[in-house]
Write a structure and sequence with these properties.
Number of domains of chain B: 2
Strand content of chain A: under 5%
Structural class of chain A: mainly alpha
Oligomer: heterodimer
CATH architecture of the largest domain in chain B: Orthogonal Bundle
CATH topology of the largest domain in chain B: Rna Polymerase Sigma Factor, Chain: A
Helix content of chain A: 55-70%
Helix content of chain B: over 70%
Strand content of chain B: under 5%
Distance between the termini of chain A: 171 Å
Number of helices of chain B: 10
Shape of chain B: globular
Largest sheet of chain A: none
């Protein structure tokens, strides 16, 4: 067997495709020829390298890219569309929105005075809603006003203001005592400006009418004075 | 094979999911074939897409009597790769530096450790550089036989040449590949085969 013949049979020999007789001839040549033995060794290593070469993993988006290039964007099925429609319902925002809507609805129903357990046809009329809501609003306002005026603090403030309005002159004519000019106040008794009297006027038991007159007009003019002014 | 035929029938009936199933079943193999021919990941992805677009457009022309769908797919891919090679030959001459670094952008496999990934990458790079030095006829024969595991008959169908020619090309391709690898080992050191101890 020549070198060229062996070279042509190298692949078949390594793949085990040779007839036994031919295989023996090849092996006999290889035992005698180092250059051919080396050549067969090189081919064997090349085949082993090819078989052991790892396959590459294609990009994960390659199939979908080819799908888009061939059949285009896939049309969504009914199930896909339903899932897409209800997807927002699984978000927390949707739950908050529903809770707020229920809360608002319950406030409106309550304000409109609608009893959901005993609803009538009249309850469905918007005019009835408006009337009831208006009534409920007014009732609420009246109750709040009553509550406000019933408060003790408010009552006391109002009574003081009433008293102040009824004695404005007393406030203005209250004596203004000048503090001693300079020096110490030890020698003179300290006199503070008179505060507005919060006490009710003392009523003369003997002549209550006079007391009342004095309250209304503290110094009534005499008849002579009136006549001299209006002859 | 029967599964392919069933998917093909459904696909021809206009079922998109069948086409997607066919794609999922064959993309990896065609992508690897394209990578072996082009030597670049992005280019292999583009060529894979072009191959499947061509397959989709000519799906009706597939004749089961002339071979399996897989063989037909390989033939379409191989013809497209030959066209692609002729189209981009000038670009390849000017961008030879990029060809020297084919695996720089590959995605690492998650199943291997760091050492395994490095070794795997080295083997792939060495093999790719050696394959690039073969003539196109010998290279495609070796790729189809030793990397895509097609038998001689299938390769003859894909390349549309007699089986004797296929055997001859494979043998010459292996001899040439062995010599190239030996020369490269002299420069870079030996590349370990995966099944060697």
């Amino acid at each position: 067997m020549t070198h060229l013949e062996l070279e042509n049979l190298a692949s078949d020999y390594l793949e085990g495709l040779l007839e036994p007789a031919l295989k023996r001839e090849v092996e006999a040549h290889l035992n005698a020829c180092t250059s051919c033995l080396e050549m067969v060794g090189d081919v064997r290593r090349a085949m082993q390298l090819c078989h052991s070469a790892p396959e590459l993993e294609p990009a994960p988006w390659l199939v979908s890219k080819i799908m888009r290039a061939t059949v285009g964007e896939r049309k969504p099925s009914l199930a896909d569309r339903l899932v897409a429609f209800f997807r927002p319902a699984f978000q927390p925002r949707f739950a908050y929105g529903v809770a707020m809507a229920v809360f608002s609805f319950s406030i409106i129903v309550n304000a409109a005075g609608i009893n959901l357990r005993h609803m009538t046809v009249e309850d469905l009329n918007p005019r009835t809603w408006f009337f009831r809501a208006n009534r409920a609003g007014h009732l609420f306002y009246a109750r709040a006003e009553k509550f406000y005026y019933d408060l003790r603090v408010v009552y006391e403030i109002e009574s003081r203001l009433r008293q102040l309005r009824s004695h404005p002159e007393e406030e203005q004519e209250a004596p203004k005592q000048e503090p001693p000019a300079g020096g110490s106040t030890n020698s003179a008794p300290l006199t503070l400006p008179a505060l507005a009297s919060n006490r009710a006027p003392v009523v003369d038991v003997a002549d209550p009418a006079a007391t009342l007159r004095n309250e209304i007009v503290p110094n009534p003019p005499t008849i002579e004075a009136v006549r001299s002014q209006n002859p | 094979m029967e599964q392919d035929q069933e998917l093909l029938d459904r696909c021809l009936a206009g079922e998109d999911s069948a086409w997607e199933a066919l794609l999922s079943a064959h993309t990896r193999r065609i992508y690897n074939l394209c990578y072996r021919f082009t030597g670049r990941v992005e280019e292999a992805e583009d060529v894979t897409q072009e191959v499947f677009i061509k397959v989709f457009q000519t799906l009706k022309s597939y004749d089961a009597a002339q071979g399996s769908f897989s063989t037909w797919l390989n033939r379409v891919a191989r013809n497209h790769l030959v066209d692609h090679y002729r189209r981009t030959r000038k670009d390849r001459v000017t961008s030879s530096l990029e060809d020297e670094l084919p695996a720089a952008e590959e995605r690492p496999s998650l199943h291997m450790g760091p050492t395994g990934q490095v070794e795997s990458r080295e083997r792939r790079e060495t093999l790719q550089l050696a394959l690039d030095r073969l003539s196109p006829d010998l290279r495609e024969a070796v790729i189809l036989r030793d990397l895509n595991d097609l038998d001689y008959e299938e390769i003859a169908l894909v390349l549309r040449v007699p089986q004797g020619t296929v055997k001859s090309r494979i043998n010459r391709g292996r001899l040439e590949l062995g010599r190239v690898l030996k020369r490269m080992e002299g420069v870079r050191g030996p590349a370990k085969a995966g099944n060697e101890p």
